[in-house]
Amino acid sequence: MAQLTLYLDRDTESKVKRAAKAAGVSVSRWVSNLIRERTAEEWPDSVREMAGSWPETPTAEELREKLPDDIPREPF
After folding, report:
1. How far is it, in rounded angstroms, from Cα 36 to Cα 50?
2. What residues contact residue 6 under an 8 Å CB cut-off, 6+ apart?
3. Tell me, what's the pLDDT at 13?
4. Backbone conformation region of residue 47, classed left if phi is above 0, alpha if psi is from -120 to 50, else beta
């Protein structure tokens, strides 16, 4: 496992310590989790599970069919 040294101003250090304490984890674990979340290349399971959860949402085609014809555009 790699080690990383961070230099933080006192205010930021205090915020990190409070956030880690509130989360019930060590500062190292809190920073590690934050880095993992911010560098993830996939959506979390909680987001993927939401797919299809709003079946009443109309498709793009359904939304467009209710619009009037567009006005003619001038050529470029």
Report:
1. 22
2. 31
3. 97
4. alpha
